Amino acid sequence: MRTYLSFEQPVADLDARIDELRAVAAKGDSPALTEEIVKLQAKSDKALADLYAALTPWQKTQVARVQGRPRCMDYLEGLIADFTPLAGDRYFGEDEAIVAGLGRFEGAPVVVIGQEKGNDTETRLRHNFGMARPEGYRKAVRLMELADRFELPVIALIDTAGAFPGVDAEERGQAEAIARSTETCLSLGVPNVAVVIGEGGSGGAIAIATANKVLMLEHAIYTVASPEAAASILWRDSSKAQEAATGMKITAQDLLKFGIVDGIVPEPLGGAHRDPAAAVASTGKAIGEALKAMQNLSGDQIRDARAEKFLAMGRKV
Questions:
Q1: Strand ranges (E), the chain
Q2: Which of 79, 106, 200, 201 has the most CB atoms within 10 Å of its CB?
Q3: Mean pLDDT, range 272-294, rounded to an integer
């Protein structure tokens, strides 16, 4: 079943008409109906292309969160061979909001760390909607240190509304865990590439996204706080989320312009949720190119380049 967002209603109406005509055409040969279906399909494709060529930041937020958009596990299945998950932080326990382990990307061994939101009620609850507790970030630190020790590149897949804000997470040192994970990203002597595949929310994203190369899918968002949270803070009114999204410059296009991200991964027409396999393949190609560009760098060169990248943010030209 196709998913339509509120702003896609014109496309939904056209597609509904196409489905009706196809049902009628299936009952008998009708060249006139076939011709009309072709015309309507072209009209639907153009309407969808026009919509997605001019999405507002709030509409991109809706696309980044939409049901059916490929999640971390979809990228692991499509890009990483022989993936072996590793569990636990060796301090407290396991956190399934972050999936991490060893595998092969384009035949070469890598460490992969990703935030998994889940696709239905059961998996969303198991993965806590992609919102990690301290043990999740400490697991990420453990895997990054393992990657450094064995000289394995690190791939991070970002998709979270933010770190889990519960009392139990604060009691176990949420802020320290996020800071330690960010510090570990910066200290790696191996290449690391991060891709924002959906939402990149606050410190919960930065903790594993402080990478040599930070990429974003075309309709993903990367933000210091969710638009709803920002609206609540600024105006004490979460209904102003659309206004907040516009002012915060959270889209891949804005962030590339400001030098916050290094590249944009194109999505299929109408968003990654309309063709998950194509989105995964496009992301894999971008990751491969980023890693190849760093394969001949020494550990010191990798660290220096990463540090300079983040130090340069916000400098006046």
A1: 80-85, 98-105, 108-115, 154-160, 192-201, 213-217, 221-223, 263-265
A2: 200
A3: 96
Strand partners, 223: 201
The per-residue pLDDT for 29 is 66
- Pairwise CA distance, residues 268 & 26, whole Å: 28
Residue 194 gets which letter from DSSP? E
Domain boundaries, the chain: 6-54, 61-311
Say whether 105 sits in a helix, a strand or coil: strand
Give the amino acid at 294. M
- Tell me: pLDDT of 182 over 80: yes
Average pLDDT, the chain: 92
CA atoms within 13 A on the CB side of 170: 3
Tokens representing 279 are 């989105």
Residue in the block written with tokens 């299929």: 268
Give the domain 61-311 fold.
2-enoyl-CoA Hydratase; Chain A, domain 1 (3.90.226)
Q: Give 11-41 pLDDT, tens digit per residue.
A: 989 988 888 888 877 776 667 788 888 888 8
pLDDT of residue 248: 92
For residue 100, give the nearest of 80, 83, 86 by alpha carbon.
Answer: 86
Q: Are 93 and 87 in contact (CB under 8 A)?
A: no
